[in-house]
Amino acid sequence: MKNSRAWRGFFQFSAIFNFTAAFAILFAPELLFKILMMSDTLTIEAIPWMHQFAGLVLVFGVGYWLISTNPLLHKDIVWMGCVGKIVVFSIAWLDIALFNAPIGFGVLVIADLIFAMFFAVVWRSTETAV
């Protein structure tokens, strides 16, 4: 796998992106919602769902950190991360299109789509390396 050091740094950055998002959801949801133009949607009923989502985001971040230690060894996590990021992007934009959800979250998850593209490049390169 070419540029493995750069890819390791990329996956560490991906992990930090996820850790930051998870901690923002867990510890500063009001601020996060305001930044994402969702300040009026934070309700007590949403908090357990947000915590569940934050937990998943955190676990995916741990997976990305694990990938950074050896992308070839953890290519299945690369694939799962690629699929997961595409699903998050797709669902966010479906919510915007079908349910008039605030656009702020959709803007944020454009980063997930970009990450997914890079994950796909790494996954494809691990398939040819084996």
UniProtKB/TrEMBL annotation:
The chain crosses the membrane at residues 9-29, 49-67, 79-99, 105-123. Keywords: Membrane, Transmembrane, Transmembrane helix. It comes from the Bacteria. This is Uncharacterized protein. It comes from Zhongshania borealis.
